[in-house]
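The instructor's notes for this session suggest beginning with a concrete chain rather than abstract definitions. Hand out the sequence below and ask the class to guess, before any prediction is shown, which regions might be ordered.
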Amino acid sequence: MRWSLPFSAASLGCLLVICALMSLTMGAMPLSFTQSLLALIDSIIGSQWSTLQHYQQMVVLELRLPRMLLALLVGAMLAQCGAVSQGLFRNPLADPGIIGVSSGAAVGAIIAIVWFDDWLGSWSVPACAFISGLFTTLFVYKLARSGNNTSVFILLLAGIAITAFAGA
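After discussion, reveal the predicted structure:
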């Protein structure tokens, strides 16, 4: 049985909202679903329906809510990047490894671990991985450009070659 697109989108949207609201209640300090939801409503409209203590409201509003919103935002951006990658290569199995981003970032992380361990404190490895992944992507893109055109086929071949080189 195949579901229609509007039904699937509505179902997944409702499931996303339910899971997001459930994430406000789960953690090291268990809180009830209704009280967490009331604390969120209280902060939006300024009422006093929630019976949570002040520190419990702070857990919901200042710890769990920002994490939940950030997780939704990052998930949406990753989904968009995946859709663009799959559309560009016309391949539903395309991933960042196909153009060398993952391998380039791994090389950057290894360089940070070996040489720049205390450079930015705990941010050394992610910063070097990001910079290296970005430069790898730009390098593969530069290899694939000829004049004003970019060949998807050459982009794919250059990415595979850079992935193999970085993996070695």
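Then share the key points. The chain has a mean pLDDT of 88. The CA atoms of residues 24 and 64 lie 6 Å apart.
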